[in-house]
Design goal:
The chain is α/β, with parallel strands linked by helices. It has helices at about 35-40, 75-80, 85-100, 115-125, 155-170, 200-210, 220-230, 250-260, 275-280, 280-295, 315-325, 330-335, 340-345, and strands spanning about 1-10, 15-25, 30-35, 50-60, 60-65, 105-110, 130-135, 175-180, 215-220, 235-240, 265, 300, 365, 380-385, 390. The protein binds zinc ion.
């Protein structure tokens, strides 16, 4: 399959090529370059897709989703009312929605009963349309802790290690730990409160790393963030620096995040403009400023939406990226957050996230030029995931 477009964002640095092309064969990118050169490599009868006003770029990566939640007003109640088969059917529909939004890879950071692992396998086998899914299986939380209802309760270092091993055996490719509380869980710890001791956290990271798996730590509280950094986690989710009284971006911890190369996924909703109404202007500005400070300090930020939680749909990634533009980040850095940088954080940086020969054919065509206007990412013209072509129309 030959795809041509007005602009092609090629290679690891998304170098813009005018009048470019990508050749896809057997699920892999076979060639990228100026249209005339790549056209010479095509065989008679090979399908051609021309987008003379569009931009071809790597498929987007949403580094934080929950396929098991519906994104409605009470995702937990909806989940608890569904048996596994009904839930699995709903998760397939959400995977299709992600594709329609140009997302070709996701990291699922918490499912129930290994359903995201099961869906990942059926997508890879070509049985269901969807993005590549890097799954954490069941998140690790203390008894009654944040998202306990997903089935991953553990306390004490031994139990925590056992649960990590159970997830690895179930097919997890990343381990998710709920280091602090979260708003989704009624009656649980507050968002700024830590849920695990330093010893438990260190045991969890040790067990995961022993098996070669990265650790993603859900951490809102400044204390919990510091504990996660000390334990050596690989990514920090949310990273809102909450304290009982406000927000405290601790300079010493921030410096260690940069030094240790920890990726931070701030999980931004496409409705981020509503935050001043929800939290008040002052608090919202403090939240925005915390992300701005991390960006300014050189933290390796990655894009994620927390799709599935309240009012976070599965088509929200392009809309959420405008948040970073609002903070003053250049479009080029924002695109990296949703492609190469995220791919590295997910452990798939050698396979996807860039238009480079030998990489998986995960690509997106949009109308317009996202480097000039990130809003162009909302105008999806075509999506190719693992070499399979999907039209822009809802699949
Ligand atoms: Zn989440």
């Amino acid at each position: 399959m030959l795809l041509t477009a007005a602009h092609v964002l090629a290679g690891a640095d998304r170098h813009p090529l005018a009048d470019g092309a990508v050749l896809v064969r057997e699920g892999t990118i076979a060639a990228v370059g100026p249209r005339e050169e790549v056209e010479r490599l095509t065989r008679p009868g090979e399908p051609r897709l021309a987008h003379p006003a569009g931009t071809l770029l790597p498929g987007l990566i949403d580094a934080h989703v929950h396929l098991c939640f519906d994104g409605g007003t009470d995702p937990v109640a909806t989940l608890q009312q569904q048996d596994d088969e009904a839930l699995f059917t709903a998760m397939k529909a959400r995977a299709r929605q992600l594709l329609s939004a140009g997302v070709t890879t996701v990291r699922d950071l918490g499912d129930r009963g290994g359903l995201a692992v099961r869906l990942a396998a059926s997508v890879t086998a070509g049985e269901d349309p969807g993005p590549r899914i890097v799954s954490a299986a069941t998140p690790v939380t203390p008894p009654g802790g944040h998202c306990w209802f997903l089935g991953g309760e553990a306390t004490g270092s031994d139990e925590v290690r056992r649960l990590v091993r159970r997830n690895i055996e179930a097919g997890a490719e990343v381990i998710k730990v709920m280091e602090t509380g979260g708003g989704l869980t009624k009656g649980g710890a507050q968002s700024w409160e830590s849920q695990f001791t330093q010893d438990e956290l260190t045991a969890l990271v040790g067990e995961a790393h022993h098996a070669g798996l990265p650790v993603a730590a859900h951490a809102h509280g400044a204390e919990g963030i510091a504990a996660a950094v000390e334990a050596g986690v690989d990514t920090i989710e949310h990273c809102t620096w909450m304290t009982p009284t406000g927000i405290d971006v601790r300079a010493d911890v921030l410096a260690r995040i940069v030094e240790q190369g920890i990726h931070v996924c701030p999980t931004v909703s496409p409705h981020w403009r509503m935050l001043p109404q929800i939290f008040g202007a002052e608090r919202a500005e403090a939240m925005f400023d915390a992300v701005r400070q991390m960006a300014g300090a050189g933290v390796r930020l990655i894009a994620g939406t927390d799709a599935g939680v309240q009012r976070a749909g599965f088509d929200g990634l392009p809309g959420s990226l405008t948040f970073y533009e609002h903070l003053g980040l250049p479009a080029e850095r924002v695109l990296a957050m949703a492609t190469t940088e995220a791919a590295h954080a997910l452990g798939v940086g050698d396979e996807t996230g860039q238009l480079t020969p030998g990489f998986s054919a995960d690509l997106l065509v949009v109308d317009g030029d996202p480097l000039a206007d990130l809003g162009a990412l909302r105008s999806v013209a075509a999506v190719v995931a693992a070499g399979r072509h999907y039209d822009a129309e809802p699949i």
